[in-house]
């Protein structure tokens, strides 16, 4: 199955570099390009890509607002934020908007291509340097009280949420818990529904905020 990708960046050179790598990959294709956030939202509705690689700073509507509109719409597109400006404010705003990935532009193009495959498969990916900052921030917080939403989940789902918070994929969940990949996927889907989470990124954040995962563990 070919992964359909939309590139959204106001720098033509960035789009050209990504297109060059993607065009050389058999199972990924660029179906469209946008230079503004508004254009990205429109093209998602027209072209139905699986993944949108989105810059933050663009003329008019920025990438975060565009991401929120895309993930809230009926299209099933997943968004990877790809930016030079990896400030904490941008990271949190992007994740709250529903982005399934957050990368920085100084990453190797092959790593960005690998991230497209990861996010298209329904997993989440955050640049290693950004992840270290997030963990450091959570490490400095007092031990949190479990949010009331956790009362809705079963002990098994709580265990799954903890493992998702540690970054395990569905296949890794299945191997760790000795269950089928389908059962692992069903547990994650149940968590998304019960916790009103948009995607795995929000499950990871919830696992940290609930104290199920900490850097020490």
Automatic annotation (TrEMBL):
Residues 4-120 form the Response regulatory domain. Gene3D superfamilies: 3.40.50.2300. The keyword Heme does not apply. Residues 146-211 form the HTH luxR-type domain. The modification 4-aspartylphosphate is found at residue 55. CDD domains: LuxR_C_like, REC_NarL-like. The keyword Magnesium does not apply. Keywords: DNA-binding, Phosphoprotein, Transcription, Transcription regulation. InterPro entries: CheY-like_superfamily (IPR011006), NreC/VraR/RcsB-like_REC (IPR058245), Sig_transdc_resp-reg_C-effctor (IPR016032), Sig_transdc_resp-reg_receiver (IPR001789), Tscrpt_reg_LuxR_C (IPR000792), WalR-like (IPR039420). Transmembrane segments: none annotated. This is Response regulator transcription factor. It comes from Actinoallomurus vinaceus.
């Amino acid at each position: 199955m070919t992964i359909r990708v939309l590139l959204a960046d106001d720098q033509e050179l960035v789009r050209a570099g990504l297109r060059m790598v993607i065009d050389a990959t058999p199972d990924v294709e660029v179906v469209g390009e946008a230079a503004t956030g508004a254009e990205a939202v429109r093209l998602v509705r027209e072209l139905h890509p699986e993944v949108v690689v989105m810059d933050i700073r663009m003329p008019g509507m920025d990438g975060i607002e565009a991401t929120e509109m895309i993930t809230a719409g009926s299209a099933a597109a997943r968004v990877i934020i790809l930016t030079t400006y990896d400030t904490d404010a941008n990271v949190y705003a992007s994740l709250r908007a529903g982005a399934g990935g957050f990368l920085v532009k100084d990453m190797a193009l092959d790593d960005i291509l690998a991230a497209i495959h990861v996010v298209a498969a329904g997993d989440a990916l955050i640049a290693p340097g950004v992840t270290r900052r997030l963990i450091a921030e959570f490490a400095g917080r007092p031990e949190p009280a479990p949010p009331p939403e956790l009362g809705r989940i079963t002990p098994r789902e709580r265990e799954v949420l903890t493992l998702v918070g540690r970054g395990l994929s569905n296949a890794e969940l299945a191997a760790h818990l000795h269950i089928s990949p389908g059962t692992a996927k069903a547990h994650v889907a149940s968590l998304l529904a019960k916790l009103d989470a948009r995607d795995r990124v929000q499950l990871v954040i919830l696992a940290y905020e609930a104290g199920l995962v900490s850097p020490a563990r």
